[in-house]
């Protein structure tokens, strides 16, 4: 019976300042570091032994993974970084304060941009200074794959190939996998795993730093889902 552990990165500096982050490579806050270390402590207490680790190419998720694995004495396991686990791209909203955006566009519109399944945010041009098209970590991607903004539907579409090609086969082989990523890439993955409806996914929240543990049967049906408390 394989286990999958999902961890949303610890609080980031822009979580703390209430800014839209997306693909901007923001670091963890002091609280975020503490949350990631607490996640590792919780994993150690539950005695889960991992075979593989996955994370995004953004340092808040990478560092969360490393702190968590260090905390459970498993920093040595094979680790894979992929843009497919990046946070959803918030387009032209990236860097903007969420409260100020609500004052400008209205609370309802900002809520729709943040939580709806298929509504895109204002898009960022590839020529914009903040475009990921200028970032070396995406140099090997087809330029058409680099988004100017994403909703949860698009995020799910880029996460599914990773699940089908990499993660599901390992789980089917009885291997335990840990994924440290972002609120929306993990919400998308949870939607797929649990077959959550487009409407109900709006209500799913991922707490920073908290391990979410799935047990599967031999056909990857979910047998149980548990959230580990962290200090």
Shape: globular
Please describe the biggest sheet, giving its number of strands, its sense, and whether it closes into a barrel. 6 strands, mixed
Give the rounded overall mean pLDDT: 96
Low-confidence stretches: none
Instruction: Compute the CA-based radius of gyration.
Output: 17 Å
Distance between the terminal alpha carbons, to the nearest Å?
A: 28 Å
Question: Strand order within the widest sheet?
Answer: 3-2-4-1-5-6
Q: Please, how many helices?
A: 7
| Share in helix | 25-40%
Enzyme class: isomerase
Keywords: Gluconeogenesis, Glycolysis, Isomerase
Protein name: 2,3-bisphosphoglycerate-dependent phosphoglycerate mutase
Active site: 9, 87
Draw up the topology in text.
Blueprint: E1 3-8, H1 13-16, H2 30-46, E2 52-55, H3 59-71, E3 79-81, H4 98-105, H5 107-115, H6 152-172, E4 177-181, H7 183-194, E5 211-216, E6 222-227
Parallel strand pairs: 1-4, 2-3, 2-4
Antiparallel strand pairs: 1-5, 5-6
Helix pairs in contact: 2-3, 4-5, 6-7
């Amino acid at each position: 019976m394989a286990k999958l552990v999902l961890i949303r990165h610890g609080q980031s500096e822009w979580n703390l300042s209430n800014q839209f982050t997306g693909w901007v490579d923001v670091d963890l806050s002091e609280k975020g570091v503490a949350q990631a270390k607490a996640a590792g402590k919780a994993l150690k207490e539950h005695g889960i032994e991992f075979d593989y680790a996955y994370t995004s190419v953004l340092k808040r998720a990478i560092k969360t993974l490393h702190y968590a694995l260090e905390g459970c004495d498993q920093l040595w396991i094979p680790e894979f970084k992929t843009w497919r686990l990046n946070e959803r791209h918030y387009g032209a909203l990236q860097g903007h304060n969420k409260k100020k955006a609500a004052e400008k566009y209205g609370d309802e519109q900002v809520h729709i941009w943040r939580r709806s399944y298929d509504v895109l945010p204002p898009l960022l041009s590839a020529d914009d200074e903040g475009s990921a098209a200028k970032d070396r970590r995406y140099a090997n991607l087809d330029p058409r794959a680099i988004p100017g903004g994403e909703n949860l539907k698009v995020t799910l579409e880029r996460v599914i190939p990773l699940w089908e090609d990499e993660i599901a086969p390992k789980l089917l082989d009885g291997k335990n996998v840990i994924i440290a990523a972002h609120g929306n890439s993990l919400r998308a993955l949870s939607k797929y795993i649990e077959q959550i409806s487009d409407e109900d996914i709006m209500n799913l929240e991922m707490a920073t730093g908290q391990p979410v543990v799935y047990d599967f049967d031999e056909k990857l049906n979910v047998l149980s889902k548990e959230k580990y408390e962290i200090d």
